[in-house]
Amino acid sequence: MSKEEGITVKKEQDFSEWYTQVVQKAELADIRFGIQGFIVHRPWGFFIIKKIYEYFEREIEKDGHVAFLFPSVVKEEYLKKEKEHAGFTPEVFWISEAGDKKLEERFALRPTGEAQIYPIYSLWFRSYKDLPFKGYQSRISSFRNEMTTRPFLRGREFLFFESHDVFNTHEEVLKQVEKDLEICDKVLKEDIKIPFLFFKRPQWDKFKGAVDSFTPETLMPDGKKTQLASTHDLGQRFSKAYDIKVKNKDEKDEYVWQSCFGPGIWRTMASIIGIHGDDNGLVLPFDMAPIQIIIIPILFSNKDNKAVIKKCKDIESKLKNYRVKIDLTENTTGYKYNYWELHGVPLRLEIGPKEVKENKITIALRTGSKFSIKLNDLTKEIEKNAKLLDKKIEEKASTYFKDRIKETNSYNELKKILKDHKGFVKVPFCSMDWDGEKCADKLKEETAANVSGTLYPTEDKIKDKKCIICGKKAKHLVYVAKSY
Amino acid sequence: MSKEEGITVKKEQDFSEWYTQVVQKAELADIRFGIQGFIVHRPWGFFIIKKIYEYFEREIEKDGHVAFLFPSVVKEEYLKKEKEHAGFTPEVFWISEAGDKKLEERFALRPTGEAQIYPIYSLWFRSYKDLPFKGYQSRISSFRNEMTTRPFLRGREFLFFESHDVFNTHEEVLKQVEKDLEICDKVLKEDIKIPFLFFKRPQWDKFKGAVDSFTPETLMPDGKKTQLASTHDLGQRFSKAYDIKVKNKDEKDEYVWQSCFGPGIWRTMASIIGIHGDDNGLVLPFDMAPIQIIIIPILFSNKDNKAVIKKCKDIESKLKNYRVKIDLTENTTGYKYNYWELHGVPLRLEIGPKEVKENKITIALRTGSKFSIKLNDLTKEIEKNAKLLDKKIEEKASTYFKDRIKETNSYNELKKILKDHKGFVKVPFCSMDWDGEKCADKLKEETAANVSGTLYPTEDKIKDKKCIICGKKAKHLVYVAKSY
Q1: Which residues of B286-312 are buried (b: 16+ CB within 10 A; e: fewer)?
Q2: How far, in whole angstroms, is CA A179 from its chain's centroid?
Q3: Which of B439, B438, B437, B413 is nearest to B426 (CA)?
Q4: Dihedrals φ, ψ of B251, to 5°?
């Protein structure tokens, strides 16, 4: 692999350029589609995306959700029914022509599902016995006319997943929020090894139309926080706007209570790239890799390579339970090592004449170590080292994240910290209600940092502290960080 | 179940109304979305759709395809690059505004993938060694501004699946066409039990831009043929239009050879409804059913129901390997039978005091039979009867299809046959080339029947026959039928 074909910058030195190169050189996305903000998901990247989808689908179905599929479009009238939610309208793409004719009624590409799903929900439920209803749609796109776009971080078309749950009581909604948090724990932390904090968001920065929003957020290496999912307590706001009612036990109409949840498929992908990746490229948990084991035959021009290739094929056939491949291209061994490292392949098996002779295999982990194993121990060793690799990825991410949470009570110190610190800072803040917005605006203006919110479900305890901005009695300890 | 809640017409008497009722009452789709031609896939129907997708994904991946994902939109300029393919332009939806602004450059919702994928293919391949490349995208939508729409038959947004293969030679393209036919055999015939004929289409009715098109077609009970998939020999037409070249062994540029394949996800769903269904509603192959086994407790107001319910739960827990449910609603037993039959649940277990006492279970197959089995034989009997049910569905469909292929050499007789006959008629025809179009137009005008094409890969032999329309020497035996 020539220098230009590999990643040419260090991740710590120029994260933005490093990220761009990994996206392109590990063949995750192609940005040459020709319409700004619309990208092509290449096979290598899309395999990983499908894994993210599958994990969330598995957990959401375990939690009793059923899959449905709504159109990609939404009626203009419905988009404007809930007053705050109508705030999406300035961002939507309109379909107003077909062929060479103007449509009688224009319609929008879905910015999110509420306005298409809830009019139909108003037709589906009749009695309190029909609830709870938990439905979701996956492997779909949402569309918003974003001004700046970046693969897996922000796009005009981006990959979407949303569940929409309907209950008889508000209590059930709040339980579902905690259930959604558990799903994030299971998928993001356990499967994908991405650490995060779970926040209740401030009123001025919640989902348009929600009573309360909750989000797991992680940190990219440049210190910017990124939202991995969001779950919303919608109260009865949408049920009142879209007229979703059921008869209660006394045969009286009652508006239903709703929650909705959306894992950020793209942001999760961005976090895998950014947090797990290293100077050589992509790093992937074992289960997520399109190829889990790459076999590299070590060939010599003056030796009998047939035995080596035969051994490689024998080993490949023994590893049928994994996604395994032998690299038989004409590239040099060094090129092959770098190529598959860049693509994040977890385990590399090296087999040369020495290995054939001694009935051994050299195994190299994408996370660093390399050693010789006995051929007889192959499957046992693969299993062991796959787990070891996952553990290393998890530990590295966890250490990375812990180091990035600081705390201060002083605005001056916060400003100083934010200059170098790439992460969250915990500070006392006056209010999470609308009256805190002014302080948040000042903070944003002067430091470029946003208020993520308070920890949820267990908020940090606070006593006798003053808001770092206005100096009034602080009601909360909130987390602030820069964002994209 | 009241009379109105069940299907109120006989399938044979009013297929169109029967179809509409099954779609609605078996909760497959909701047509009340508010924008014509855009439907909601309800959970029960969408489960079946996902099965269709999974079968095709399994087979296409076995055949070496990798998954990618392109945007939902396409650049106007690209849509018009291949002269014949540009014929899609009058049908496309245009996005020309965002928020309250006109876009600088409008773009279209994808009518099909060629015009979005091939400009990118021109960037991906450099050498003949990069080929063959086989890629596909699944679980996506296509959009065309159709005038008349019907759930799963024709929509303005309809579910899509497409593979796009790139080869060094034309020979490989033709092999891929046969491979695509094998995939159709495996999925449509074996998994889904839908019989079909595989045609090479006439020149005047092929895919816009293709050299040749090939389609498996089946018949709906109203006698209309429906296209279950299509695969196309694109020759070098698109590679020349989109400049997809590779260096050959002599380091010279050569345009690649291409094929593309698209199973009709919706049409397959429509065929399942239409062909397998009966007067009571939906009928589903065992593996496709959202619930495979419904357990109905036979309860009596004057008896000890606890033992019955306990037994139902015991049995449910023994059947964990299946999708199983106990119907514990307050509905009557008769209502429950009809409800689950309408939804196509393959096996019904009835358990009442008698069954508890005698350690027996009554088992009813959706395809008709009902009998008592020993509790001890439960899992064995489930397995056996699931297979039996599938076999019955397959046999019924196969008999149905065979009865619907007739043959004649006379135009007058054809006209007579087409009046009552609900199916294909095999007739001698002058030409499958463009010069046969005039005869096809006349046939269509006078009988509403279309020419599907000649059987492929083995065409019927013909000798000394005359075209039923123009009377000139017939070159082919073609199949004609009415279509939607």
Answers
A1: bebbbbbbbbbbbbeeeeeeeebbebb
A2: 18
A3: B413
A4: 65, 20
Q: Tokens 């009286």 appear where?
A: A252
A94: tokens are: 């309109």
Q: Is omega for the bond preceding B457 within 30 degrees of 0, making it cis? A: yes
Q: Is the pLDDT of residue A84 over 90?
A: no
Contact residues, A window 12-51, toward B, CB-based 8 Å cutoff: 30, 32-35, 38-43, 46-47, 49-50
pLDDT of B161 higher than 80: yes
* B13-18 CB contacts, 8 Å cutoff, 24+ apart: B15/B220, B15/B221, B15/B222, B15/B274, B16/B222, B18/B277, B18/B279
Give B 132-191 residues with CB within 8 A of chain A. 135, 139, 141, 143, 145, 157, 159
> Residue B304's pLDDT is what?
74
**Spatial separation of the C-alpha atoms in residues B205 and B199, rounded to whole Å:** 12
Alpha-helical (H) ranges within A319-410 are 333-342, 353-358, 378-402
Nearest to A95 among B32, B66, B109 (CB): B109
Is the peptide bond preceding residue B132 cis, with omega within 30 degrees of 0?
A: yes
pTM (predicted TM-score): 0.97
Delineate the domains of chain B, giving CATH numbers in brackets: 15-276 (3.30.930.10), 293-385 (3.40.50.800), 405-483 (3.30.110.30)
Residue tagged 């879209």 (tokens): A242
Q: What is the pLDDT of residues B178-223, one digit of tens each?
A: 999 999 999 999 999 999 999 999 999 999 999 999 999 999 999 9
**Within an 8 Å CB–CB cutoff, is residue A99 touching chain B?**
yes
Record: contact B100-A90, CB cut-off 8 A: yes
- Nearest Cα neighbor of A95 from B408, B106, B446 is B106
